[in-house]
Structure formats: C-alpha cells, structure tokens
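Bumping my old thread because nobody answered last time. Still need a sequence for this structure:
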C-alpha cells in the first residue's frame, strides 16, 4: 500500500513538473515576443507600432494568455495577477477579460480531470488548510457553490487551490465550471484594469499620480465587493460576533503588520478548559491584545475595549458588528457586563484587561474596578494569563518598538465549578496577585539598543535626586536632570546602574515626593477640551481649566462646570505627553494641557495617590 502511494505521489509530481516547464516556456515566449516589444514601443510613444504588433501576433498572443492563465492554475504557486495585468496591457479590456476567463475555465477543467480521474489526493494542493479554516467560519452550511464564491473573492488563496478543493467535492462539472467562470471575474477585472491603466501610463498619456490613484481605487473596489458579499451573504449570521468578517479582517491586518516583529512564546491553553471562558490578563503594552489573539485563535474571542477607541467614525459604526464590547474606563457601565454575558451565552470566550489601562512604569497597575462578584456569577472557566516582556518592547512612553522575547503564560485556571469556593474578596485578591508583574525583575532579557531612555522623561517627570519638576531629559541610554546634573544610565537589562535600580524604583521615588504635599494639593491647568457623546460623535471643542485638590477633580469652561469627588474618580486614564480623560454623565471629556503636556502623568499619579489614601482611611 505504501509503495502504491509513493508511486502515485511520483506521478503527481511529474505531472506538476512537466506543467511547470510548459508554463515557464510560455511565459518566456510571451515576454520575449509580445510584452517587451510592446512596452518598448509604448515608452517611445510608438502607438502605430504597438497596434501593428498586436495585429501581427493577435491570435498567437490570445492563445498564449489563455494557456498561461490555465497552466498557472495547475501549478498554483505561480501568481495569476501577472498574466492578467499583462493581458490588460496587451489587449482591449473586453478581450483581456474574456481571454483570462477562458484560461481560468481551461485550468479549472484540467484540475477537475486530475482530481476526478487521476485521483489526486486532497492534500496535494497548497492552501488546503486555509480553505478549511475559512469554510469553518460560517455557522451555516451554505453549500459548495457559495463557499467557492467566497473563496474566489478572498485574494489570499490562489485560484488553482480553490479549484482543487472544489473538484474534490461532489459538485457536478457544469455547475463547478459556471461557478469558477463567474467567481473569478471581479479579481480579473481589477487586474485587467490595472494593466490598462499601466498601458496608458507607458504611453505617457496618464500622469503617475493618476496611475497610482486608479490602482488604489481598483484595489479598494475589489475589497468592497469582497466585504459586501461576505457581510451580506456568507457571514450574515456572524454579525455582532468575533466570527464576523469585520473582526476577521481587523485581526488579519494586525497579524500582517505584527508577524515577525517580536519573539513570541505562547503557553498552550489548558486541555480541560471549557468553552466559553473568561480570560483576564495584565496590560503591559498596546499590542497585548494581539499577543492574546495569538494564544486564543480557536474559538475566536471577544475583547472588552476602551470606548474611546470606538469613537473613530468607521469604528463607531461597525464595532458592534465586529463583536467588540465597549467599556467606559473607571466608570460604572452595566452595558459592558450585559455585553460580556451575551457574548458568553453565544459560546465565545471574552478577554478583559482588569487594570483598564497600560502600565506606566512596568509594574501592573492596581485593579481599581474589582470584578470578583461578576466573574463568579458568570459561571464559566476563569483563565488568568500573564504577559511578560512586552513592556520594554513597547512601553506607552517610547515611540519605537524594540524586538524582544515576549511570553504569554497561563498562570491560573479556575474551573467554573471551583468559583463557588471563593468569596468575592478572595477572588479579587487571587486575580490581583496572579496578574502582578514587574518588568524590571526579568533580567534574562537583553536590550542592546542605544536609545532606551528616549521618551522616558515623559513619565519620570520629576528628578528623584533634587525633586525638581519637569527637569528630567532622556538622551541615549541616560536620564539627566537639568537642575542638579544627576544622571542615571540604563544597562542592557533596562535597569539603572546604581540607585534607583529600575524605572519602577525611580517612579516610586516620585510617588514618595508627591505624597508629602497631598494635603495642600492644588493643581490647575488651562486645557483644550474635546467632548464626545455616548455614540462617539464629537459634541464640541472648547477651552477651560482643570483643577485637582485632595477632595476631587473639577472642570470649568464658558459653557459648563462640574466636580467629581475623589471617591467617584478611581483613576485618570491618560496618553503620555498628550491628554487625560474623565467621564461626566454620558459624555467623555479629553483634556489637552495648553502648557507643558508632560504634566498629564502627574495628574494621573496624584489621582492614584489620593484614591489609595482614601481607601486606606476607610
């Protein structure tokens, strides 16, 4: 049996090899005798010569396009776009479209015969795993035809691979061929039109900016057609879940731009993990959501997301369709709890960062909104995951990303039956201790970069030696104070040489300095303000003044004023060197200090210290 299978594999490889030789021969012929002369004539604006060449080689050129298009499908690792764009360069658009479609039909027929008569194995074509992944995304069985249309609309899967898959199903040949012939048209049209635009450019009748604009618009048109088909037909039942096409497209894009940028080490998920489950993680960097995506791809998970990220026009309209759950940071939000419950009932895991904000100094933030009571009521497995190494790869204060070892570890798995063994307070303490991390303690990671202190002064805003405000400056690997001349240099482990020993220790020293003056605290700042409504739309822009005392936070402008007592302000989210934010009633306020935007970190730290003191007093 093994010998027979080996012989069959050799035959398959021989057929593919012969096909490849033929394809390369035809490509060489096409490039030598038609395309290159045509391009040379077009560069010289010799339109008469170009037309004569096409008339002279007309039938043979047409035949070449059909055969190359067909054979590239059989040898599926040769991209179809080349011959399609070349056809658009060489022939009028209707002729190019017809030739490419005939070539696809011929190639699809060859593949059908190879699979049905020679019994090529299903795993003899590339792309099988990707096709199976996409076919499993729809909850309904839409049938082979609709699936093939969906696959043809996806630009990442070769036409040949799709035809190998379709031929291995029970679909009949006439229906199979009709599906192939019509399913490839959008992609061929876009490639042919790109070729036509390039022909006009080579003839110097089209400016380069217009050529680029046409190509971008054509690509956008293709993706719009893909989105329309998938969203309205194939994945309609997935809207509002992580299996929606919007969610898939978003994470595909993120995976494309992030893959290979870090050395990612993932723990396997527990074998006895019941789905759906709730995953809680610490929050070291902006890209933490991607690291958890890599950990939990099947089934796809829903994320609880800062509502601010959903105020952008496109996100505002589509975040619910994409299966994201919005959250008002550090503000009572029953809608978030209901969103989590609904998503779990649909069978999807939910991912939540209980800190609610990124780490400032590499230490896990205190969890200000404890959710033990909710987690116990959900009655699903609770997974506690710790991300390590992400902070120094891309902290919130540094503009550049450092390639680094990043690990995602499952530190605790609490089965739903075990949740009854904890009180709310015990569960909160367990979550806090399990997720706690201090980036400066992982000395096994090395950072050889020479600009480790760039941006560091935006969080270490006060000199730990002399106490002066806003006199620190980061250059290279060192943090300087322009008031007293103190210098602290970072080593290859991102730790200071001498004392303070780490960024976290330096931040602790600033905390100690700020605590001394809490009773007499009066901090004011003129600000530019953006106010967002519940639906994410901008209500207004204005100028005003923010004020912070030991009793609370207040804001005053020409149009309104309000005060938030410190016991109703658990934390002050912020963006380094930019703004800080609060919720007041249903509106989200963004405050941009007019003078010295480094101070936003100080505002956030002082609110933390005031909240901690009030908690200790109570």
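Sorry it took so long. Here it is:
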């Amino acid at each position: 049996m093994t010998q027979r299978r080996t012989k069959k594999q050799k035959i398959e490889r021989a057929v593919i090899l012969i096909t490849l030789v033929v394809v390369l021969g035809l490509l060489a012929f096409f490039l030598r005798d038609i395309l290159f002369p045509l391009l040379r004539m077009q560069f010289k604006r010799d339109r008469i010569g170009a037309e004569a060449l096409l008339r002279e080689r007309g039938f043979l050129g047409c035949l070449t396009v059909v055969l190359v298009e067909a054979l590239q499908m059989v040898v599926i690792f040769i991209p179809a776009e080349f011959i399609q764009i070349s056809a658009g360069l060489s022939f009028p658009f209707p002729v190019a479209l017809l030739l490419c479609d005939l070539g696809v039909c011929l190639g699809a027929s060859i593949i059908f015969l190879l699979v049905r008569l020679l019994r090529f194995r299903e795993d003899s074509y590339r792309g099988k795993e990707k096709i199976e992944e996409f076919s499993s995304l729809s909850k309904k069985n839409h049938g082979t035809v609709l699936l093939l249309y969906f696959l043809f609309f996806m630009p990442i899967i070769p036409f040949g691979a799709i035809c190998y898959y379709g031929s291995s199903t029970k679909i009949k040949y006439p229906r199979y061929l009709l599906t192939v012939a019509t399913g490839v048209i959008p992609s061929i049209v876009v490639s042919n039109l790109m070729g036509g635009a390039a022909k006009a450019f080579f003839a110097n009748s089209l400016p380069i900016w217009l050529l680029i604009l046409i190509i971008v618009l054509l690509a956008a048109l293709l993706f719009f057609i893909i989105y329309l088909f998938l969203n309205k037909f194939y994945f309609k039942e997935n809207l509002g879940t992580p299996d929606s096409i919007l969610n898939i497209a978003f994470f595909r894009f993120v995976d494309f731009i992030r893959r290979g940028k870090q050395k990612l080490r993932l723990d396997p998920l527990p074998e006895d993990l019941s789905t759906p489950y709730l995953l809680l993680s610490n929050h070291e960097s902006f890209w933490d959501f991607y690291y958890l995506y890599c950990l939990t791809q099947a089934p796809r998970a829903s994320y609880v997301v800062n509502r601010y990220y959903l105020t952008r026009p496109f996100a505002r309209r589509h975040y619910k369709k994409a299966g994201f759950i919005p959250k008002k940071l550090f503000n009572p939000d029953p809608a978030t709890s209901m969103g989590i419950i609904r998503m779990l009932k649909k069978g999807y895991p939910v991912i939540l960062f209980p800190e609610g904000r990124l780490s400032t100094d590499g230490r896990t933030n205190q969890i200000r909104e404890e959710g033990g009571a909710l987690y116990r009521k959900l009655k699903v497995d609770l997974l506690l995951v710790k991300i390590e190494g992400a902070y120094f790869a891309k902290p919130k204060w540094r503009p550049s990303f450092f390639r680094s070892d990043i690990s995602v570890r499952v530190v605790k798995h609490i089965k739903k039956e075990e949740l009854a063994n904890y009180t709310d307070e015990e569960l909160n303490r367990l979550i806090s201790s399990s997720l706690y991390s201090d980036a400066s303690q992982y000395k096994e990671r090395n950072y050889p970069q020479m600009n480790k202190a760039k941006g560091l002064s935006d969080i270490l805003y006060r000199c730990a030696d002399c106490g002066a405000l806003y006199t620190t400056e980061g250059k290279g690997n060192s943090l300087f104070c322009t008031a007293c001349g103190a210098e602290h240099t970072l080593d290859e482990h991102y730790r200071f040489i001498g004392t303070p020993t780490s960024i976290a220790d330096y931040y602790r020293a600033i905390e100690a300095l700020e605590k001394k003056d809490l009773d007499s605290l009066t901090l004011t700042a003129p600000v530019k303000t953006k106010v967002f409504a519940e639906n994410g739309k901008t209500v207004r822009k204005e100028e005003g003044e923010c004020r912070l005392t030991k009793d609370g936070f207040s804001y005053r402008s020409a149009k309104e004023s309000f005060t938030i007592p410190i016991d109703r302000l658990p934390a002050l989210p912020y963006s380094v060197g930019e703004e800080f934010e609060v919720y007041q009633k249903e509106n989200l306020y963004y405050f941009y200090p007019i003078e010295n935007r480094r101070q936003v970190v100080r505002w956030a730290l002082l609110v933390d210290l005031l909240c901690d003191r009030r908690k200790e007093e109570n």
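The chain has four domains: 2-228, 245-441, 456-515, 522-617. Let me know if any region looks off to you.
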